[in-house]
Amino acid sequence: MKMYQALAAIVFSAIALPTLAQMTPVGVWRSFDDKTNEPKSEVRITENAGVLQGTVQKVLRKGADPDAKCTKCRDALKDQPIVGLPIIQEARKAEGKDVWEGGKILDPENGKFYTLRLTPIEGGQKLEVRGSVGPFGRTQTWLRVQ
Asked: Which residue ranges form the domains of the chain, and what is each CATH number?
């Protein structure tokens, strides 16, 4: 009987651990256009010492120039290639929650930064990405690619 319990514990761990490990924004995500719902880009989110950063890995819009630059960005990001552009900066996990906030997100289409909140949902297969200024903002749902 103990052998069956041990086997059941191993099987449960093998199934549950990958699911638990996915409740994080770390990974590759597909974003979508708010108006057309067409795939827009893939963004890779990484973690370093508890701080999340995210860069555009691939532009997916039909007919988009893969060498496009962020012409509306300011300062050091001005005229930088969209692919490789750091659009998520300095997000940290909120105490006791599966929410990352305190950072900012860049909208390359207008060159503006917004306050950021990232919330994994549906077992970590989707990511709610909220950008806001004060009480005003919008939330997008990104899909996990990797």
From this structure: 2-144 (2.40.128.520)
